[in-house]
Amino acid sequence: MERTITVTGRGSIHVVPDVTRLEITISSRFNTYQDAYEKAKDNFAQIVKILEYNKKPGNLAKTIRMDISDFEKSVTDKYGHHMYYEKNGYELSQRIKIDLGIDNILVNNIVRGIGKFIQDAQIDIGYTVQDPRPHQLKMLERAVKDAREKAEIMASALDCTLSEVKNINYTHEDVHIYSQARNIHSTAEAKVSTAESLDITPEDLAISDDVTVEWVLVNKSPKS
């Protein structure tokens, strides 16, 4: 009967970030759907203007969420006990992403602009990489090597050697290369931001990937 050994290898690397990512979250309530929709358009237009004022193309701004939904408030009795919900206008939930280089002065200028012109905004500042594919391939190579090194040690302990590869199990997933560094909770906080307060030196990003490999085991050749 054929004997096999199955081992999962892990490839880990550290990546130097080259992108500062701003994610702007805006949540507001309005009396009508049209008011909410017009505000969403105005918010995006203001961010485009802020980018262009700082000599960056407006198309760096990407909408990753825009939702307008019914807002319901809780109706209570005279004792404060909840009875039911009733509609009370509309709620806008908007999320916009901007990817920039590693430039604290530029980031600060944009943060301050958002604080000045966008109401009810929160800003997450994080770091990522522009092109994750070379790092993904490097992790995969290391994962396969790690699996083979482990399998060779176990095979040797069993007085066997590795023969051909019988199966490889790898489920590709987009690796999330991102690290959050700072959260600006309000427009008031954004307005008083300074380049010094955003003088963040991003740490290398640690990422990893797994692959499972199955080898056929054969007995070691007897020593003559």
Can I get a quick summary?
This protein is an alpha+beta fold and 224 residues long.
Comma- or semicolon-separated keywords:
4 helices, alpha+beta, 3-stranded antiparallel β-sheet, Alpha-Beta Plaits, 224 residues, elongated
Describe the secondary structure blueprint for this structure.
Blueprint: E1 3-15, E2 19-30, H1 33-53, E3 61-76, E4 82-100, H2 104-117, E5 121-128, H3 133-157, E6 160-169, E7 178-184, H4 187-191, E8 205-219
Antiparallel strand pairs: 1-8, 2-4, 2-5, 3-4, 5-7, 6-8
Description:
With 224 residues, this protein is α+β, with helices and mostly antiparallel strands. The protein has a single domain (3-219), classed as Protein of unknown function (DUF541), domain 2 (Alpha-Beta Plaits), CATH 3.30.70.2970. 29% of the residues lie in helices and 45% in strands. It contains 4 helices and 8 strands; from the N terminus they run E-E-H-E-E-H-E-H-E-E-H-E. The chain has helices at 33-53, 104-117, 133-157, 187-191; strands at 3-15, 19-30, 61-76, 82-100, 121-128, 160-169, 178-184, 205-219. The strands form 2 sheets. Strands 3-4-2-5-7 form a 5-stranded antiparallel beta sheet. Strands 1-8-6 form a 3-stranded antiparallel beta sheet. Strand 3 and strand 4 (82-100) form a beta hairpin. The chain is elongated. It starts with a strand and ends in a 5-residue tail after the last strand. The model has no long low-confidence stretch (mean pLDDT 90).
